[in-house]
Amino acid sequence: MLGANDASSQIDVGTHIERGRSALKAQDYAEALHCFGQAIQINDEARWAWHGRGDAMQLSGHHVEAERAYGSAMALDPSCGLHHAGHANALAALGRLEEANAAWTEALRLDPGLQWMREGQD
After folding, report:
1. 115 falls in which pLDDT band (50, 70, 90)?
2. Is there a contact between 50 and 37 (Cβ–Cβ < 8 Å)?
3. Rounded to whole angstroms, how far apart are CA atoms 100 and 40?
4. pLDDT, tens only, 9-65
5. DSSP 8-state secondary structure symbol assigned to residue 79
6. Is residue 84 domain-resident?
7. Is residue 37 in a domain?
8. Residue 61, by phi and psi: left (phi above 0), alpha (psi -120 to 50) or beta?
9. Is 5's pLDDT higher than 80?
10. How far apart are CA 117 and CA 21, in angstroms?
């Protein structure tokens, strides 16, 4: 018979990420962090788990931790504009505006469709 922790480890990374995204939509940031953390425990190279952790941290007001999580996502997938955009928003929230603008420039270079994320940022 599997214990609670054993059953949790049988769930794949993608399932944890999807549960984390659902928790984000429900504004249950503690649950989102738990789910993304479970995904990272299984595979610490799961870039979308790191990105989701950044989102949960950012939305709950923990901007330093958000910046670090987005940094991890960017290190794993430097060509993803969305990771750079999240990083830019975290930097802006920390008052690091020069760095935020540089991150935004890179995000939009990689994915011009992300302009919607910057509305109201200027």
Report:
1. confident
2. no
3. 26
4. 568 999 999 999 999 999 999 999 999 999 999 999 999 999 999 999 999 999 999
5. T
6. yes
7. yes
8. left
9. no
10. 18
DSSP state of 112: G
**Nearest alpha carbon to residue 100 among 63, 75, 61:** 63
Specify if 119 maps to a domain: no
List the domain range (segments joined by +) for residue 82. 4-112
Whole-angstrom Cα distance, residue 16 to residue 12?
7
CATH number of the domain where residue 81 is located = 1.25.40.10
* Position with higher pLDDT, 11 vs 109: 109
Instruction: Tell which residue, 78, 77, 84, 76, has the closest CA to residue 104.
Output: 84
Place of tokens 């330093």: 64
Claim: this prediction has a pTM higher than 0.90: no
What single DSSP character describes residue 114? Answer: G
How far is Cα 82 from Cα 37, in angstroms, rounded to an integer?
20
For 78, phi then psi, to 5°, come to -65, -10
Count structural domains, the chain.
1
